[in-house]
Amino acid sequence: MRKGGFFPDEFTLGSVLRGCAGLKDAISGVQIHADVAKLGFKSDICVGSSLGHMYMNCGLLDEGERVMKELPIRNVVSCNTVIAGRVQNGDPEGGLRYFHLMKQIGLYPDGITFTSVLSACSELATLGSGQQLHGQVVKNGVVSEMAVRSSLVKMYSKSGCLTYAERVFHEEEDGFEVDLVIWSSMIAAYGFHGCGKEAIELFEKMSVNGFEPNDVTFLSLLYACSHSGLREKGEQYFNEMREVYRLEPKLEHYTCMVDLLGRSGHLEEAEDLVNSDMPMDPDVVVWKTLLSCCKVHKNAEMAERIARRILELDPHDSAAHVLLSQVHADSDRWGDVLDVRSGMKEKKVRKEPGMSWVEVKNKVHQFRMGDTSHPEYKRIEEYYRGELTRKMKEHGYVCDITTVFHDMEDEEKESSLSVHSEKLAVAFAILVTPPTGPAIRVMKNLRMCTDCHVAMKLISKITGREIVVRDVTRFHNFSDGDCSCGDYW
Ligand SMILES: [Zn+2]
Ligand SMILES: [Zn+2]
Predict the structure, then answer these.
(1) Residue 489 and residue 477: Cα distance in Å, rounded?
(2) Can you say where the PPR repeats lie in this chain (predicted)?
(3) Ligand 2 centre and the CA of 259: distance in Å?
(4) How far is the centre of ligand 1, averaged over its atoms, from the C-alpha of 406 (Å)?
C-alpha cells in the first residue's frame, strides 16, 4: 500500500498495530509508532490505544503506559487497556496500581476494569484486596455482569476461599443469570481444592441445566479428576469429550490425562499416551508432568528416559534437573545425584528461587529462603527454630533430611541452615495475628516439599490455626493435623 503511494489513515494504523500486538512484534510496532508521529495521529484516541495495547502485548509495559498517559483524553477504555495489559502480561501489581490511579483521577471503573483487577488478585492470592473489590463491584452496580461474577468465583477460589466462591456461584438463585464461564469457573474451583466429586456433580448438574460443555470445561473437569485420584471417571470424561461432544482434545487435555494416569501409578500407559496417541508433538510440560509422576512412584529408570527427552527440548530446564536428582536421591543413588548436580553447574542451570507470600492486614509480605531482609526476620526465625520446632518435635516431627537437601529450592549454600519460605511466612503470620484469627493463607511459587507438608500439618495441630498453602499446582488446606489433599499431590 505504501509503495503504491497511499498514506495510511487512523484505521490502517490501528489495524497494523493490532497485527503487531498479535504477533508480539515490537520491532515493526516501533516503526509504525514513528509513522504515527510523522503522520500526525499521535493524539488520536483509537490509534493511541492500539499503540499502547501493542506495547503492552509485546511485554513493554512501561512504554505502553507512557503512550496511554500522553493521550489527550483519559477515559475508562484507555485505563482498561493499561490495566488489562499489565495483568495479562505478568504484572498484576502494576495493574492494581493503575486501578487506584484511575480512581484518583475520578474515573469510574466498569465491569471490564473489575474483571481485570479481580484476576490480578487471583494471581496474587490477596484475599483482603479481593474482598474490598467485591464490595466495590456491588457498589458500582456491575455485580450482575457474568464476566465479573466468574472473576469473583476465580478470585475467591484462587485465594483459598472455596466457600465464598460457592456463595458467589449460588447467587444465581437470587435471580442472577449464569453462563458457561461461571459454571466452568466453579468446576475449576472444586478441582483446585481437590474436591473431585463436587466437580463431577456440578458438571452433571450443568448438563441437566442445558449448558453444553466446551474444551475449557473439560480441562477443569479432567484436572479435578486427576487431582482427586479419580482415574476411571477421568478416562470416561476424556472419551465422552471426543465421542459425545465432538471436541478435539488439545495438548492441555492430554497433559491432564498423563497426570491422571501417572499419578495413579499407570506410568507405562501414560508414556504410551504421549508416544503414540497424541496427535501433536509433546512439549516440555507434558514430559515434566510424567517426570514428576515418576518421582512420586519412584521409577528411576523411566525418570531418566523422560528427563533426557526434556533436556533435548530445553537443555537448561532447571525443574527437570531437580526432579531427576530427587528421583535418584529417593532410590539412594547418590552418585547419580552428584552427576546431575555437576551437570547443572557445567551448564550453569539456575534454579528458580523458592518464594512465598502471605497477606496480613491487607499488606503482602514476601519471604525467600536465605533472604533476611524482612524487618521481623530475626523474630520469625527465632520463633520457628525455637518454640515451634520444639513443639513439633514433641508431636513426633523429624526433619526430613533428604527432602531438605534435595528440595526444588536453591539450598546448596545453606541447606540445613535455611528454613523454606513457606515456613517463614506461616511463622510470621502466627506471630502477628491473633490466635483465633482467620485462616493463614500462603502462596508459594514452587511445589511444596514433603518436609514442609509434614511441618504444616503439625503446625496446624499445635496452634489450632487453619493454614492454606497454594503452591504452583494446587491448594493444601491444613487443619488439626491433616491436609485436604490427603497426602496425594
Ligand atoms: Zn519445603
Ligand atoms: Zn497437602
Answers:
(1) 12
(2) 75-109, 179-213
(3) 17
(4) 10
Neighbour-count burial for 138-160, b at 16+ CB within 10 Å, e otherwise: eebebbebebbbbbbbbbbbbbb
Spell out a b/e string for 185-204, using b for 16 or more CB atoms within 10 Å of the CB, else e. Answer: bbbbbbbbbbbbebbbebbe
Nearest alpha carbon to residue 143 among 186, 181, 114: 114
User: Quick check: 217 and 245 in contact, CB under 8 A?
Assistant: no
Helix (H, G, I), strand (E, B) or coil at 341: helix
- Could you tell me how many residues make up the chain? 489
Q: Where are the domains of the chain?
A: 355-483
pLDDT tens-digit readout, 398-445: 876 555 444 444 444 334 456 889 999 999 999 999 998 888 999 998
Taking the CA of 486 as reference, the closest ligand is 2
Supply 106's cell numbers: 475520578
Ligand nearest to the CA of 402: 1
The three three-digit cell numbers of residue 152, written as one number: 469473583
* Start-to-end C-alpha separation, the chain: 57
Ligand 1 centroid – CA 407 distance (Å): 7
Ligand 2 center to 456 CA (angstroms):
9
Backbone angles phi, psi at 438, to 5 degrees: -70, 175
Kindly give, in sequence order, each residue whose CB lies less than 8 Å from that of residue 322, ignoring residues fewer than 6 positions away.
Answer: 351, 406, 408
d(CA 476, CA 192): 9
pLDDT one-digit tens code per residue, 31-56 = 999 999 999 898 888 899 899 999 99
Which sign, positive or negative, has the C-alpha torsion 204, 210, 212, 213? negative
Determine the distance separating the centroid of ligand 2 and the alpha carbon of 455, expressed in angstroms. Answer: 11
Q: What would the DSSP string read from start to end of 8-63?
A: P-HHHHHHHHHHHHHHT-HHHHHHHHHHHHHTT-TT-HHHHHHHHHHHHHTT-HHH
Q: Which amino acid is at 283?
A: D
Judged by DSSP in three states, 181 sits in: helix
263-300 burial, b at 16+ Cβ within 10 Å, e below that, comes to bbebbebbbebbeeebeeebebebbbbbbbbbbbbebb
Amino acid at 202: L
